[in-house]
Amino acid sequence: MSTLTKFRVPTREEVSPENQAIFDKLNSGLGFVPNLYAAMAHSKSALGNFLDFANGATSFSKKEKEVIDLAISQVNDCKYCQAAHTAIAKMNGFTDEQILELRAGGASWDAKYDTLAKFSKSLAENRGRVDENFKAAFYDAGYTDENLVDLVIAAGIIGITNTFHNLVGVEIDFPAAAKL
């Protein structure tokens, strides 16, 4: 007989001193420790390594990063990341309607975001085997080889959190994202 195993979110007191320091920094900056990050703290090194990777420099603006994160989180059906990145996208100036459209893989109000959303969606759906027409449109929109490299890195970062949440299913501690 199989039993459902629930992945527990550790408290600050239950994690390593290194992770306690990260919790304190997250609390100071965000006002809380997101459950997905706290869950990573079961490992002594994963949370710090992930945050170093995720917070690295990129050639994309904050808004472009959200375009990528929203489109890919939708493809990967990660409810946690859809909720978190909906909140972050709102903080970066996107409307509710724009966020839904980005999650669907488009942006009718902005040609460059539209290209980025479509490319990001195709990248996730096809595991990197993006049609040459999407690649041509990406470059025609003004994106560069540097952007292409950074897009793969951004897709990897959001892919980690999508996969992790889809596996462990910790409670979503952001307002739920609207359904498409």
How would you describe what is shown here?
The structure is a single chain. The chain is an all-alpha fold. The protein folds into two domains: about 15-55, Single alpha-helices involved in coiled-coils or other helix-helix interfaces, CATH 1.20.5; about 60-170, AhpD-like (Up-down Bundle), CATH 1.20.1290. It contains nine helices and no strands. It has helices at about 15-30, 35-40, 45-55, 60-75, 80-90, 95-105, 110-125, 130-140, 145-170. The radius of gyration is 17 Å and the shape is globular.
C-alpha-based Rg, rounded: 17 Å
The CATH level-2 architecture of the largest domain is identified as Up-down Bundle
**Secondary structure: helix percent:** 55-70%
Our estimate of the beta-strand percent is under 5%
How many β-strands, per DSSP? 0
Number of helices: 9
The computed structural class is mainly alpha
CATH class descriptor name of the largest domain? Mainly Alpha
Largest sheet: none
Number of domains: 2
Distance between the termini: 36 Å
Report the CATH topology name of the largest domain. Answer: AhpD-like
Mean pLDDT: 96
Helix/strand order, N-terminal first:
HHHHHHHHH
Shape: globular
What's the CATH H-level superfamily name of the largest domain? AhpD-like
Low-confidence stretches: none
